[in-house]
Amino acid sequence: MNVLLITAYFPPNTGSAAHLFYELGAALVNRGHQVTVLTIFPSYHAQGDISKYRGKGYMEEDVDGVRVIRVKVPQFPRHVPAGRALWQFSLAFKFALAALKLPSFDASIVYSLELISRAGHPTLSSTMRSVLFVGKGWFLWKLARGCTIR
Q1: Mind listing the domains of the chain with CATH numbers?
Q2: 58-63 and 66-71: which strand pairing?
Q3: 98 and 69 in contact (C-beta within 8 Å)?
């Protein structure tokens, strides 16, 4: 199966969503699936040397068999409600643009805020057969630990 994972957070970013999506992608690859992650460049609590990500607007890399596509999203002050909203709109816009260039997927798991899910859904859903929007990390943890996708 060809699976698309969409999240704003993926290693080298730290935090539960980043690590859960990494584990889910690795588990699916270990089961023989093709996995693509659509994410942004590291910026939020990133660990390690992130110099290879600086100054780029788009990048593809392989992370343990997972194809990772990174897009640049403008940074706004997230502690200000208007800044957070602008960041969410720009995230939805960039993900939707990137999705237009991608092939069709059998399934997708989107971990995002409500605004991103609603704004990006029409464009993103045109590239896949089924879409699962995830709002809580416990579901990803269960999928990564006992993945039932065949």
Answers
A1: 2-145 (3.40.50.2000)
A2: antiparallel
A3: yes
- Which tens digits make up the pLDDT trace of 7-41? 888 999 988 889 989 999 999 999 999 999 999 99
Contact 8, 91 (CB under 8 A): yes
Q: For position 66, what pLDDT does the model report?
A: 98
Let me know if 138 is exposed, middle or buried by CB neighbors in 10 A (0-12, 13-18, 19+): exposed
All residues at 6 or more sequence positions from 79 whose CB lies less than 8 Å from its CB, including other chains: none
Q: How many beta carbons lie within 10 A of that of residue 133, not counting itself?
A: 16
Match 């039932």 to its residue by tokens.
148
Return the structure tokens found at 81. 């409600």
- Residue 111 CA to residue 117 CA, distance in Å, equals 8
Q: Which one, of 51, 84, 90, lies nearest residue 72 by Cα?
A: 90
pTM: 0.79
Residue 109 and residue 50: Cα distance in Å, rounded?
26
Dist CA 147 CA 99 (whole Å): 25
